[in-house]
Amino acid sequence: MASVTKDRVGTNALITMIGDWSAGGAGPLHRRLADAIRQAAETGVLPPGSVLPAERGLARALIVSRSTVTAAMNDLKADGVIEAKQGSGTRVVGKPPAGPPGATRLPGILSVPSRSEPGVIDLAASTPADARALPTVDVDLDSLLRAGPRHGYTPEGLPALRDAVAERLTLGGLPTSLDEVLITNGAQHGLALAFTLLSSENDPILVDEPTYPGMIDLLASRGLNAIGLPRRSGGIDVAELRRLVTKHDIKVAYLQTSVHNPTGLIAEDWEFRALAKTCDDLDLTVIEDMVLADLRYDGSEPAPIAARVRTANVLAIGSISKLGWGGLRIGWMRASNTVMERLVRTRLTDDLGSSIPSQVIAAGVLANFDRVAALRRSTLRMRADLAADTIAEALPEWSVHAPAGGLSLWVQLPEAVAERLAQAALQAGVMVATGVSASVDGGYTDHIRLCFDRPEAQLIEGLKRLASAWHSVNPTSALAGA
Length: 482
Description:
Layout: H1 11-18, H2 29-42, H3 55-62, H4 66-78, E1 82-85, E2 89-92, H5 106-109, H6 112-116, E3 121-122, H7 141-147, H8 159-171, E4 181-184, H9 187-198, E5 204-209, H10 213-221, E6 225-230, H11 238-248, E7 252-256, H12 269-282, E8 285-289, E9 314-319, E10 331-334, H13 337-347, H14 356-367, H15 369-394, E11 399-401, E12 408-412, H16 418-427, E13 430-431, E14 433-434, E15 447-451, H17 456-473, H18 475-480
Parallel strand pairs: 3-13, 5-6, 5-7, 7-8, 8-9
Antiparallel strand pairs: 1-2, 4-10, 9-10, 11-12, 12-15, 14-15
Helix pairs in contact: 2-4, 3-4, 8-14, 9-10, 9-13, 11-12, 15-17, 16-17
């Protein structure tokens, strides 16, 4: 997290705090900027008494007009969020937050208002562009009535879908029975259930660094302390994991063991074995994220950690949102029978089960799994190559991490200006996610994540606009590319 020194907030620090401000919310730019600063103040990221940067310098850093910043500040003054006193600058007022902060990463990435603006190309959200990857599934009323209880509530999930998930997991090297599967409203719902069951406020949780942006919001909403485990390769640094678990007395870890989001890297089989042994040695409970397991470009399916541990407790979580479509909102959890009973009871406190029509469609996707997965892997590999080649030609100073799976590129910029680039990109008509959105420590300010799972023409146009935005942020690059 960016720091505040002697109550004065530096321009770069404030930019980090407000994140992808121009991509979130609705309305004109000044209102979005005001909303982002207001949220930072309300969540305690920007503490009471903090002195904000001068308007002129902030406008220059944000690549907006001075009038935009002035209008935003006037809105915040009218709402009582800030006050200006002659000789002491503009300060944040108000009381510290009473509870944990809400979501700060996902709104900028999944911002509907910004995405729906005419002509904006979305390369920020790491999701399929649309539902065209879904196979045709015939659903009628009779099939729905036969699929489950007539009242329609299925807290564990439809038996047919649970059985299909169990079969897929078993084929992938993790022997699973129907009773060990719970159907959820997407993987995020499963993660929320897992942390509700396994953790209490202020607990330290080991998390990949960088990581899935939604994980950062989820931990913050529960008042949990994220301890970052650096992921510099596809594998997991077992020695560092052991050190951090021992140092912080960590009981629960969230680990992506298939394709890592956002880097697109994968682990080798020997790394899985070493990780499983370490989890046993430490008696570590692992929430294993397998959402991208089906999208390794080489089609391999190494047995997950859940299949390799002897004594450690592992909750495996997956989804078909990346394989099929995010709007289907169907995921799953795999756990022992004892843990599964507790998960169902936990779920029933605020959710009575997933939509039966959605579950029937999901079962149809799994019935066509081999065909759907093969097509998706082939398409993603081609799009990844296209994106990497386009960037190499238009932006040779950027460093692209070649992915081994997944939907996104993890790109390193030559300078720590990802936030400025994201703002300039939106003004150029393209959305990207910054590295900060995937960092538990507020790092990776020199990285961006680009989703290439888009139609070819749209992807090329989006990257063209991104290159234009980069040249506006980095005039030297613009001259070089002229």
